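Ticket #4471: structure output looks truncated?

Reporter: J.K.
Steps to reproduce: submitted the chain below (120 residues) through the standard prediction queue, then opened the result file.
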Amino acid sequence: MADRFEDHRGIIQDILAGPIDQVTTIFTRAGHVRGNHTHPKTSQWVYVVAGLLLISHDGEEFTAAAGRLISEPADKPHAWKAITDCTVLVFTNGPRSGENYESDTVRLPESQWLLRPGMS
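Returned output as attached by the reporter:
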């Protein structure tokens, strides 16, 4: 985490520091999966705006609710499954932005999927 400031009015908390090439909003309906891929040259940070996600990356699974920031380093397989309808902001550093959104995406074969769709 970056810097934090607190006084009688409340808290100001930086959640991310560093170069960002793109900020993208993604809405995912409950039960659906995004990911099951890697980005060889792109790092991204996912900020959950609303909803609840099941996250799988770097060998672990965990849930992430509104207000959570998840770091997804380059070349690490990852996937998200919406437990409820979800909205996230994705902060991207690397060639995967704008018209090149899919240019740095390597899909995992189905036999290696981290998460599967469906309401479980």
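Triage note (M.O.): checked the attachment and the full token line is present. The chain is about 0% helix and 50% strand.
Status: closed, working as intended.
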